[in-house]
Amino acid sequence: xxxxxxxxxxxxxxxxxxxxxxxxxxxxxxxxxxxxxxxxxxxxxxxxxxxxxxxxxxxxxxxxxxxxxxxxxxxxxxxxxxxxxxxxxxxxxxxxxxxxxxxxxxxxxxxxxxxxxxxxxxxxxxxxxxxxxxxxxxxxxxxxxxxxxxxxxxxxxxxxxxxxxxxxxxxxxxxxxxxxxxxxxxxxxxxxxxxxxxxxxxxxxxxxxxxxxxxxxxxxxxxxxxxxxx
Length: 230
What we know:
The chain is built from nine helices and seven strands. It is α/β, with parallel strands linked by helices.
């Protein structure tokens, strides 16, 4: 191994170690405040923002919901999510292809976590880098769009393997694009045998109730007794 390669590995390990420490501190803060944090990962264009807007609008009827939105540039997604009525903040990462724990901490600095029950972190659209960074979340959810093809879980196994739940999105387009749901689920099961798979469509609201029920289970299981969830 060359000196340059060894040094690169040392730097990489140092970054991850620092991130893990900060993520652990964030997780403690979230737990103390009774906030359930869900980290959403997908490729660009998988429908994260559309599904999240519908989810936030529906969940706001029963709890306090907020979102941090990561993108390389623009605040388009934050403005879309703000239409739900929830607390929303955009994070522009520039040339960084993922969010890290210190970025999340900085953008939460002036928020009162005691006033939030459910916090979504919409990660930068990318199925590679975000998988390696813990953000202190209680659960990680990966989205797979019907328009992406069925083999994404096999191409990006690390991301799908770390998911606590997997959402199939844009199911209203499954027929027109010839999406093979059985094959997609078989590929998901090849890398993640246990995570629930929920088929959704933000446009038709297919699967929205099942998705929301899963979110409620996470809130009740992880913070039972900390806050009362309606």
